Amino acid sequence: MYHSAIKDLFNNEIVAYHMSLRNDNELVLQTFRNAFKKTKDVPGLIVHSDQGFQYTSRAYHDMLPKVGAQISMSRRGNCHDIYTFRSLH
Predict the structure, then answer these.
(1) Do residues 37 and 14 lie in contact, with contact meaning Cβ atoms separated by under 8 Å?
(2) pLDDT for 13-50, tens place per residue?
(3) What is the pLDDT of residues 53-77, one digit of tens each?
(4) Kind of pairing, strands 46-49 and 13-20?
(5) Beta strands 13-20 and 2-8, pairing class
(6) Which of 9, 26, 74, 89 could bridge to 81 as Cys pair (CB 3.0-4.6 Å)?
(7) Could you say which DSSP state residue 82 is in?
(8) Distance (Å, rounded) from C-alpha 79 to C-alpha 76?
(9) pTM of the prediction?
(10) 19, β-bridge pairs
(11) Residue 54 · residue 64 · CB < 8 Å
């Protein structure tokens, strides 16, 4: 079982999650669909991730800008990058 979650770093709330038997693009894309069901308008949102295959996929890079979200990624091989995030609220 694989679990994907979106955490709001403003208040540490889990905004959305999705579980699947497969670790694939659909796992991550469905997690974001779940988040956008709650909040449709997210201009100024910064979504930060690592450089995993799901987050470098064309589908991911096509989806987020459509809702006004900016994509941010850690430097390769550095899981400790720190960025400022804006809440989904």
Answers:
(1) no
(2) 999 999 999 999 999 999 999 998 877 667 778 888 88
(3) 898 999 999 998 888 888 888 776 6
(4) unpaired
(5) antiparallel
(6) 74
(7) -
(8) 8
(9) 0.77
(10) 3
(11) no
Amino acid at 54: Q
DSSP string, 7-72: EETTTTEEEEEEEESS-SHHHHHHHHHHHHHH----TT-EEEE---TTTTSHHHHHHHHHTTPEEE
Q: Token pair for residue 48? A: 């930060």
Closest CA to 50 of 69, 22, 78, 19: 78
Calculate the alpha carbon distances from 4 to 15, 19, 34, 61 in Å: 11, 6, 11, 17
Burial class (CB in 10 A: 0-12, 13-18, 19+), 16: buried
Residue in 83, 3, 11, 2 with CA at minimum distance from that of residue 47: 83
Cα gap 67→50, rounded to integer Å:
20
Beta strands 2-8; 70-73: pairing state: unpaired
